[in-house]
Amino acid sequence: MKVTLSVIKADIGGFVGHSGMHPALMDIAKEILEKEKDGLIDYYVTHCGDDLELIMTHTKGIDNQEVHGIAWKIFEKCTAKAKELKLYGAGQDILKTAFSGNLKGMGPGTAEITIEERPSEPIIIFMADKTEPGAWNLPLYKIFADPFSTAGLIFDPKLHPGFTFEVHDVVEHKRVFFKLPEDMYNLLALIGQPGRFVIKRVKRNLDNETVSISSTQRLSMMAGKYVGKDDPVMIVRCQSGMPAVGEVLEPFAFPYMVAGWMRGCHHGPFMPVAFEDAQCTRFDGPPRVIAAGFQLNNGKLEGPVDMFKGPAFDWTRNKANEMADYIRRHGPFEPHRLSESEMEYTTLPGVMKKLENKWLPVTQE
Ligand code: F6R
Ligand code: MG
Ligand code: MG
Description:
This protein has helices at 23-35, 65-84, 137-145, 152-155, 184-191, 219-223, 245-249, 314-328, 340-343, 348-355, and strands at 2-10, 42-48, 51-58, 109-116, 121-129, 163-169, 174-179, 197-204, 210-214, 233-237, 257-260, 266-269, 271-272, 288-297, 300-306. By secondary structure, it is an alpha+beta fold. Fructose -6-phosphate is lined by residues 17-18, 89, 130, 228-229, 260, 262-264, 284.
């Protein structure tokens, strides 16, 4: 059976500030999805920080007008409620007002995949707040290319031929493919710059089967001025010739540095948290990620299981707090503050503009 999994997200108003989600918005999303359920197989609503996350399964394929239309209706209704409740930044990710059949370029982030459901189909949906789509580059590399992380690359004959990575240049809007392991160094040369080069899709070399898809929308690029980071989502399929659930989670045991955090201008440790802790607090963060595990059952979403809950990720969280403390002491200095090229898409150009007439030539030392 062919099933499409659509994960569509937007920040349509925060509670409190940019930290979390008001339950009234989640209720609206659930109510609308319940009414629209005849056109879907199943749905699940959650949030990570101030982002509303809609997970839908159906048989209509990706970029479907009806499915995107449902999401748009939810974001519009939630924006109205957010305005009524005077929530913070109501409608933040809604860049256009009229829906034209597809959410592309309208603000919300999307990750969608159509698959032939296997006899058993375990998937993990990762959802992040206070960071950018390139934040998935490091774990995707480790999951699908690093045998020190994914043992199956050595031991499972279906993983052994490797994976092909589709990388997008989100500044110049073009894409390139790397077949690993052969192309490993070329891939790393690009994805080590996650603000610009973002892994969109990963396919298994054995049979070209898609195993992972991420949202790559950059809000700042769409809006022309800073309107928040893009708080990405990612879908990863697991087991039976794809990386095991534990291999997919393994890279997140290291709280690596990502861009985002306060005002979208700072590097900070990426902290894996349980659903109940998906609230950004200290310095509007640290940037957070949740992982929802599901078994697809003819498109029905059995789950979720809260994959980062529990003691296995306690050390990571403690380490992330320690790292947050360390890097915070740099205040407005790099590398805590993002580099100039990254700041280009934030509020720095405004400050530079104000200083424009104050500069004098250096005539003497
Ligand atoms: C980061 C983010 C927040 C805000 C910060 C200032 O992506 O959303 O850190 O940038 O809280 O927000 P404003 O300017 O709305 O007061
Ligand atoms: Mg916000
Ligand atoms: Mg957010």
